[in-house]
Amino acid sequence: MRKWWPLVAVCLGTFMFLLDTTVLSVALPEIGEGLSAPLPALQWVANVYTLVLAVLMLMMGALADRFGARTVYVAGLMVFGVASLACGSAPNAGALVAARAAQGVGGAAMAVTTFALIGSCYRGPDMGRAMGVFGAVSGLAAAVGPMLGGALTQYLGWRSVFFLNLPLVAVTVALTLRVLAPGRQGTGTRIDLPGMVVFALCAGSLTYALTSAGEVGWASPAVLGPLALAALALAVFARVELRSPAPLLDVALFGRAAFSAVMMCVVASTAAFAALVYTSVWLQSGLGLGPARAGLALMPLALASFATSLISGRRLHGRSPRAVLATGLLLSGIGCALQAGLDAGASAVSLAPGLALTGVGVGLLGPAMGAAVFAALPPERGGMAAGAMTTFRQLGQTLGVAVLGVLFQQGGGAMTEGLDRVLIAAAAAGIIGSVLAYVFVPRPAAANAPAPARRDLTDSR
């Protein structure tokens, strides 16, 4: 039993990190009421966390290489805990957004080190068992997030969603220091600080413009200015990365059609989760459900995703990632389409079949996404592929919430009509992503997929 304590320490941190990406969706309406925050402010409460994750993932990988995975993991846990306390104590929406950004810093450090820590402790069959447990915990976090968030919000208040992290952080830090060895530290890893700053400026400006567009319109200087800044920053980022000896992201890789298509598939895979923010708003503000009942209404997606990921991880191992990825995206898109078509008589039950089908699609995507990314590049670029995948997943979630927010508010119509537009857009993203996957994702050699996957988020080069 003693040999599995390191896995427990890693899984506890992973559970917290992933829980905070899903648990908040049900709590947002109560946060808006409690802090008198409008919808754009609530979008930032959700967006800033994933935005910071997207910006810092690659840099945190470099820090883990330099200072050791355990050091970065523990530091991330401590930052995450302090930020959670600040979130739960926030007096207004601005303070909450700032604290959520700090949470993202800690979350990025926690996320990039998990695979390295598991890889340092387990080999052979034990590695397979450890990764199976790790995958199950990841699915469990997604499954219980909406329900746990709803129950905590309704019975203890939305602040308890953040305060819950405090004892978990304390236990995880103590356990990590006791059961995980410090590991080796490197000295030669360089951090591409200019690239990180310009990428942050691009992603932040674009997110701000899209978030503002639903409220002030596309022609407003508050939208056009940040859009222009984002375009300029993107051009500068490409130039900086092409000249950097140790780039965050080798932009020349986007000259490969397969790699570009897979990155688009990664972004498309986040649309269904981004739509949940507005589904939750409709369930609570439109139908008048409490947070707990709203969380329960979203459970078909989470449970279907959890069950499918457990089954597909074993039965689809070694299958072509092209077929699995295309099928997962297609089912996710069709599931979103089935949720659309809401009318004045719609209820939470109306969403259940579509949510369940979307969950099956999402469950298929997890095991296939990494294999598809690694199939698009040579094995020696595995670290770069993993970092790009993680960054685009978080950035896709952030931009998805912003873009779908514009559709949700468009025309000032009824809330049901706004949710319909959101679900149709999410369905289109899934279906288009499915076509891209089927056409462009190559069939990898079976031996190429597993090895880079174990490096996953730990190599930023």
Automatic annotation (TrEMBL):
Gene3D superfamilies: MFS general substrate transporter like domains, Multidrug resistance protein D. Residues 6-445 form the Major facilitator superfamily (MFS) profile domain. The keyword Membrane applies. Its main location: membrane. It is found in: Cell membrane. It is a multi-pass membrane protein. The chain crosses the membrane at residues 41-64, 71-91, 97-118, 130-149, 161-181, 193-210, 216-237, 257-278, 290-311, 323-342, 354-377, 398-416, 422-441. The keyword Glycosyltransferase does not apply. It holds the Pfam family MFS_1. PROSITE patterns: MFS. InterPro entries: MFS (IPR011701), MFS_dom (IPR020846), MFS_trans_sf (IPR036259). Keywords: Membrane, Transmembrane, Transmembrane helix. This is MFS transporter. It comes from Actinomadura yumaensis. The lineage of its organism: Bacteria, Bacillati, Actinomycetota, Actinomycetes, Streptosporangiales.
